[in-house]
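Narrative summary of target 7.
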Amino acid sequence: MDKDIIYQTIAKQIEEIYGVKGVDLETIINSFNGVSEDNEEFLKRFQETFEVDMNGFDYYHFFHEDQFYVLPLVVLIIRLFRKSEEKSELKIQHLVDVAQNGKWSTP
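Modeled conformation, tokenized:
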């Protein structure tokens, strides 16, 4: 499949799932800070649309666990003092390459 068609399809899925428009090949998908349901829906659609073997994909290598708290003040305090674990970047360009190859590879 043509790289441009793959890119356009991924961009459309991002807009539908995350509501983000105007992405390019260097856009980092895990910078959207989406909830796990959105991330999982995007990955599921990506895998099904391009028939990609996602064996070896580690969700938590790229995305944080969702954390839900009752009190907004607790969330603020935790975000201020919690040491944030750096996650690897998941760029659209890499997903285009994965779609072309039909198999997951770590960037």
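The chain has one domain: 3-101.
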